[in-house]
Amino acid sequence: MPVVGYGTMLFPEPDRAVELIVHAIESGYRHIDTARKYGSEQWVGEGIRSSGVARDELWVTTKVTEENAQADDFARSLDTSLTTLGLDYVDLLLIHWPQPQVPLAETLGALAKAKRDGLARNIGVSNFTVALVDEAVAVCPEPLFTNQIEYHAYLRQDKVLAACARHGLTVTCYAPLARGRVLDDPVIGEIAAIHGRTSAQVALRWLVQQPGVAVVPRALEFGEIEEDLDLFDFQLSESEMDRIGGLRDKNIRVVDPELRRPRWDVG
Ligand SMILES: NC(=O)c1ccc[n+]([C@@H]2O[C@H](COP(=O)([O-])OP(=O)(O)OC[C@H]3O[C@@H](n4cnc5c(N)ncnc54)[C@H](OP(=O)(O)O)[C@@H]3O)[C@@H](O)[C@H]2O)c1
Questions:
Q1: 6 catalytic, yes or no?
Q2: Would the pTM of this model clear 0.90, i.e. be above it?
Q3: Which residue of 2, 28, 140, 224 pairs with 108 in a disulfide if CB–CB is 3.0 to 4.6 A?
């Protein structure tokens, strides 16, 4: 999976969405993150077709919502996603949020079937806590590839990261810029000035410099889209990594929906 993906949640101007996705692909993004819930699958499909980049050079992730956790609903939701995207398969299919009303084994069975049927090349989960990751790995008939979670410089996620590493799952960070909150941080700003980079680049570099960690930022400006991918010709020192890591004690979670959130691990 390419380490930087383009996030496609909450496009305020639908007419511009396809243009932004095409621009991301033309700028070099080869990983696009969408979901049934975002309403962006159609634009992602149109963007891919307009870009002219071959399907097999792209990594497309989509997700099935917690309302579709029962096996039949899950399969129908994936069918709708593929039709809306105009694709035969996705590279990664995720359970978007845990659903305590449906046995996890049932949803994971449907997820694994999608992989066996060739509709998803890889499978994974999102917003899973340590306990849920442990259970999912124990129960899922096929290997899980990633847990997509909120992780950024203002949120400590050591416990979930350790659980994912223990089970061989990568971590994909959503809201990697804490929806913009980390961008005015003076420590990040100071380190950005040293490297001649922007705060966004340093905040993203801090994440992708950690083992097994990928990011899916979302930007609506062409320049920012390019900037967020341009992370691979500088490196943060160990002490810079630690200084930014210390900011996690702020413990700010920007995505915490009351009706969906599991009992988050703290620390
Ligand atoms: N699995 C889940 O439950 C879940 C939940 C939330 C999000 N996600 C995924 O994660 C993706 C990203 O998360 P997010 O959109 O919530 O938050 P985010 O990527 O942390 O932050 C987006 C904000 O950062 C700004 N930004 C991005 N690049 C910038 C740059 N280079 N310079 C200055 N500002 C910059 C954007 O500004 P503008 O937009 O104004 O350009 C936007 O306000 C989503 O699109 C979605 O794909 C998944």
A1: no
A2: yes
A3: 140
- Distance from C-alpha of 215 to C-alpha of 201, rounded to nearest angstrom: 12
| Pocket residues: Cβ below 6 A from ligand 1 | 7-9, 33, 96, 126-127, 148, 174-180, 183, 198, 200, 216-221, 224, 227-228, 255
Q: Annotated catalytic residue: which of 6, 29, 38, 151?
A: 38
Q: How far is CA 80 from CA 10, 48, 93, 159, in A?
A: 20, 18, 13, 35
CA–CA gap between residue 20 and residue 116 (Å, rounded)? 33
Helix, strand, or coil here: 91? strand
State pLDDT tens for residues 193-230: 999 999 999 999 999 999 999 999 999 999 999 999 99
Closest ligand 1 atom, residue 224 Cα? 31
Task: Compute, in degrees rounded to 10, the torsion defined by CA atoms 245, 247, 249, 251.
Answer: -110
- Residue of 1, 174, 216, 255 to mutate, ligand 1, most atoms within 8 A of C-beta: 174
Q: How far is CA 67 from CA 106, 107, 261, in A?
A: 13, 11, 14
Confidence of residue 13 (pLDDT cuts 50, 70, 90): confident
Q: Return the beta strands (E) in the chain as ranges.
A: 6-7, 31-33, 59-64, 90-95, 120-126, 146-150, 170-174, 213-215
Q: Which of 99, 157, 95, 103 is nearest to 126 (CA)?
A: 95
Residue nearest to atom 13 of ligand 1 (CA): 175
Q: What residues does each domain of the chain span? A: 6-250
